[in-house]
Design goal:
Number of helices: 4
Oligomer: single chain
Helix content: 55-70%
Shape: elongated
Strand content: under 5%
Number of domains: 1
Order of helices and strands: HHHH
Largest sheet: none
Low-confidence stretches: none
């Protein structure tokens, strides 16, 4: 009988490469969120609202939310490459906030909003792997 507590667990290449992908994607998603927010702040008439959507939101306010979320996402993505556990936890929270923010942005950019939600979900999965940064 072997003691599994003393044996190092093998990190799957899929999960480890997922964290690298998640860090890179958080930087890219942060850039996308930043520019999306900047576009909404500069010219809120750029985004066309579909009719009869359940949630009516102010574009400029959501522009500021996307802009600030983008900056924080980029910073967290950079810190993920250091292997910081706090960056992983914050990254999961920020990816969840990104998914929610893009859910509310679906009527303005439907395909883009759904794509960002899907990427955020993959980032959450990648960062929630508990065995990625263990020694």
């Amino acid at each position: 009988m072997t003691d599994t507590m003393t044996e190092p667990r093998e990190v799957s290449g899929w999960a480890a490469s997922g964290v690298v992908f998640a860090g890179t994607m958080m930087i890219m998603i942060g850039l996308f969120q930043f520019f999306q927010g900047l576009a909404a702040i500069i010219n809120d008439q750029f985004f066309v609202v579909t009719q009869n959507y359940a949630y009516s939101l102010d574009i400029t306010t959501w522009g500021w939310i996307h802009l600030l979320l983008g900056v924080v996402l980029m910073l967290c993505g950079v810190f993920l490459f250091t292997g910081n556990v706090i960056a992983r936890a914050v990254g999961i929270l920020l990816a969840a906030l990104t998914a929610v923010a893009n859910f509310f942005f679906i009527p303005y950019y439907p395909f883009w909003g759904l794509l960002m939600i899907a990427l955020a979900i993959y980032v959450i999965w990648s960062l929630s792997r508990s065995d990625v940064f263990e020694p």
